[in-house]
Automatic annotation (TrEMBL):
It comes from Eumeta variegata (Bagworm moth). This is Uncharacterized protein. The lineage of its organism: Eukaryota, Metazoa, Ecdysozoa, Arthropoda, Hexapoda. Transmembrane segments: none annotated. Residues 1-215 are annotated as: Disordered. Residues 7-18 have a biased composition (Low complexity).
Length: 362
């Protein structure tokens, strides 16, 4: 019986098994030597091929890669990416600064050549796929990973900007402006509308964040008045000068101040009318304020009355001395400059309590 011939597939399989056994038994130096010889052979082969052969080879390679990637599962894909990252990190750790510079220069050259050959449709597809991958990665990351990524990105950017010279900085800004102009020239009307809309949303978010910070800083600042702070210089405060004169009482007012705040349009007496009452109470200690004037029952709508304080006890925390007040005289004095000064005389049974608020509106 004649000897059965082996098929080409079985011969290739046996050669592959033998090659795999040899590679498992070889040392690291032998592996480096074999890979170096293989790289030289590949470089010589790539140098001899024409542009048509190169395009055909790349198309076949991309097709094989796409078929393999389509058949692999999510677990196989994760393992492949993990192994690829490990190999890449090992190679990057062994390379010198010169090799790294050459690699980055070659990579930038290949990228620029590929970007120059692609059409507008291919560019749109590439950017869409890139944005999709980026959004998927950003959606999977946690808040801690996002903070770490942004921190590392800002740190790398600051290091790069700190090392560059003035000439490099000007060149970088010029290249950035050129790229922006080219990108704006190539974009369609829909892309421009989407870009402007995203820009407006980012600006609104940034302004809302800064506005919330200002409001949080100025919350209840009237009760924590600091004379060292120039409140008129803050962008959130728009007071202006007190260059408006009240026709009733000749008091200085702000332009947008509500009418009637100073003298109720001439119906409220000013501080000068109560000067004799104040002098009498200060000079004569035997005068009982409860016996002066006519006794009336104040309604709950009168601010500071006992019924008002009983219905709204929260006001006691603001001014606890109003509990024992029998007579409340609001003494308005002439404002001086941009700082408003108002004196409140709280007259109790046998004592006068004077509290001064400067720059505080209640």
């Amino acid at each position: 019986m004649p000897k059965r011939s082996r098929s080409q597939l079985s011969r290739n399989s046996s050669q592959a098994r033998a090659s795999k056994i040899r590679r498992n038994e070889e040392s690291s130096s032998e592996t480096e030597n074999r890979l170096s010889i293989h790289r030289q052979y590949v470089a010589q082969s790539r140098a001899r091929e024409s542009s048509t052969e190169r395009s055909q080879r790349l198309a076949e390679q991309n097709m094989r890669t796409a078929q393999i990637r389509a058949r692999e599962s999510s677990l196989q894909r994760s393992q492949r990416l993990a192994e690829q990252n490990v190999r890449t990190s090992r190679v990057r750790a062994r390379e010198s600064s010169l090799e790294r510079s050459e690699r980055l220069a070659d990579q930038n050259l290949r990228t620029s050549q590929a970007r120059a050959r692609e059409s507008s449709l291919e560019r749109s597809q590439r950017l869409a796929q890139q944005n999709l991958r980026t959004s998927q990665v950003r959606a999977r990351e946690s808040s801690l990973k996002r903070s770490q990524r942004l921190t590392e990105q800002n740190l790398r950017t600051s290091h790069v900007h700190a090392r560059e010279s003035s000439t490099q900085r000007l060149q970088r800004l010029e290249e950035q402006n050129i790229r922006n102009i080219q990108s704006r020239t190539r974009e369609s009307s829909s892309e421009r509308f989407q870009r402007l809309q995203d820009q407006r949303e980012r600006q609104q978010t940034s302004r809302a964040r800064s506005r919330n910070q200002v409001l949080a800083h100025s919350n209840r600042s009237a009760f924590r008045y600091d004379p060292q702070i120039d409140y008129a210089q803050q962008s959130s405060v728009q007071i202006g000068d007190m260059n408006k004169i009240c026709p009733k009482c000749s008091a200085k007012k702000w332009v947008d101040e509500t009418n009637g705040m100073c003298c109720a349009s001439g119906k409220r007496l000013r501080a000068e009318e109560y000067i004799h009452l104040r002098d009498a109470l200060n000079q004569d200690g035997n005068v009982d304020p409860s016996n002066i004037g006519q006794r009336v029952i104040l309604p709950s709508s009168f601010t500071g009355s006992p019924r008002y304080l009983h219905e709204k006890p929260r006001r006691d925390d603001l001014c606890p001395k109003l509990r024992e007040t029998r007579l409340i005289c609001h003494i308005y004095v002439q404002p001086n400059g941009l700082k408003l000064k108002r004196n409140y005389y709280l007259i109790s049974d046998l004592s006068i309590v004077m509290t001064s608020f400067q720059g505080c509106f209640i």
